[in-house]
Structure formats: C-alpha cells, structure tokens
Amino acid sequence: MCSKVSKADNDLRKLLSEKRLKGDEDRRVGSEVFDRLTLETLYKLAKMGHINKLQGAISTGKEANVFKGIDDDGNFVAVKIYRVGTSDFKKMQYYIQGDPRFNVRTSNKRQLINTWVTKELRNLTRAQEVGVRVPRPIIAKNNVLVMEFIGDDIGNPAQLMRQSKISDPEYVANKILEYVKILYKDAKLVHGDLSGYNILIDDGEPVIIDISQGVMVDHPISRELLKRDIDNLYRDFKKMGLQISKDQIKSKIMDL
Ligand SMILES: Nc1ncnc2c1ncn2[C@@H]1O[C@H](COP(=O)(O)OP(=O)(O)OP(=O)(O)O)[C@@H](O)[C@H]1O
Ligand SMILES: [Mg+2]
User: Which interval of the chain is the signal sequence (predicted)?
Assistant: First the structure.
C-alpha cells in the first residue's frame, strides 16, 4: 500500500513538472478540487496527451468544476471535473437506474460518479451524431470529462445564453427548438436541464452543454423533464424579447 502511494506521489510530481499542471492559479484551484484520485486521473489523461496544461477555472459549480486546458497538440480543451464531496448521489442513482444503457445497481459514490460522467459523454456523442451542436466529447475517465472547448481562438470561453446579448433571438430560439426536436426524435434523448444556463452562444450559434442528466425517451421521467425544459426555454425566450407561446414552442418541437 505504502509503496503504491509513493509511486503515485512520484508520478504526480512528474506530471506537475513534466506536464506543467502547475502555476499559482492551478495550485489554488487544486487545493479546492484535486483529491488524490482526481490527480491520478488527470495524470493518466496527461500521459495520454489529452491534457498538457490546465489554465484555471472557467466555472466552479455545485457539483463540478470546468477548467480550460491545452492538449499535447496545442488545442484548447474543456475539462469538467466532478467533485465527489458535493455530488447529488440520490439524483445520479435515480437517473442512472431508469436508463437501459446502464446496468448499474450500486450505491458506491465513486462508481456512480464514474457512470454519470460516462453518461454525459455518451449523451454528447449521441447528440452530436444526430446533428445537435454540443462540445465534441473527447474522453471520460473516472470523474473527469475532456471535451471540445467552446470559445474563441485565443481561449476566451463562450458566454451563456442567459448572460449574452443575442443579436438574432429568433434564429437562436428556432435553432434550439430544432435541436430539442432532433434530440427527441432521432437521438431518443431528453436533455432534462435545458435553459439559458446550459446553452452557450458561440459566434451567434447556440451550443447545448451539460447533458449528464439527459435521459432516454422511455425513461419514466422523460416527459416530466421535457415539460420542464420547455417551461425553462419559454421563460428564456420571453426574456430575449420573443413573442412565442408555450403551445407554439410545443408544436415546433412536435405534436405532444
Ligand atoms: N465545453 C465547454 N467550453 C467552454 N465552456 C464550458 C464548456 N463546458 C462548460 N463550460 C462552462 O462551464 C460552466 C459549467 O459547465 P456545466 O454546465 O457543464 O456544469 P454544471 O454541471 O452546470 O456545474 P454545476 O451544476 O455544478 O454548476 C458552463 O456554464 C460554461 O460556462
Ligand atoms: Mg450547467
């Protein structure tokens, strides 16, 4: 046990020097979220070339922190790290158990988080396959998800729809409703937490993020989640100055 830990320590020290997962800001952030297993996971991802450098936090949320990183080819990546301490395991368990893709009946917290992260990656992949603009998933490992960084060429992350000034609200709203529709009809998925807080605006285009809780349409709560997504979008569209009713939204998505 002892030698295992010291080997991990050595490996981590190597990562910190070789791969430059260092810098004042990262150390500060590190003391907040990087427990040993997370560091080991980051180390493995670094060895695989997915993370060469972490450049500080884009967001520090309830359950996860998102960092901007750079991979071995010099591309920006977004690194989402779930914190084992503050994750809502009851929710994770409930969503995972009703999902036919995951045969996981566990109350082990780490295992639940790992499945949750895999679920986010698979939902992103599915969404991307049917033509929904989402961050391209790169790899999920334990509690860490690496994905395409959404932002400009010099590394400024895209803004949330809720916080940006939208130049063509009608275009953006129609695009989002089209995405909800193809997600439902073609990918058989409901996002489940869709709102202006989980949509980024990149060059005027909406990009759907944070799809870990997304469920298949035959999940017992999919209808309830879809209704909630529609309610949220209705509120956001109104805030954006659009005159659209809930019924119009529903009919744009499908005949419900
Ligand atoms: N691929 C990405 N590229 C750029 N920024 C991103 C990306 N993914 C997430 N972000 C930023 O990080 C924030 C949090 O990401 P996300 O919504 O996926 O996590 P979260 O689950 O909402 O976190 P929490 O619920 O704990 O607050 C987003 O609001 C966005 O600003
Ligand atoms: Mg979010």
Answer: none
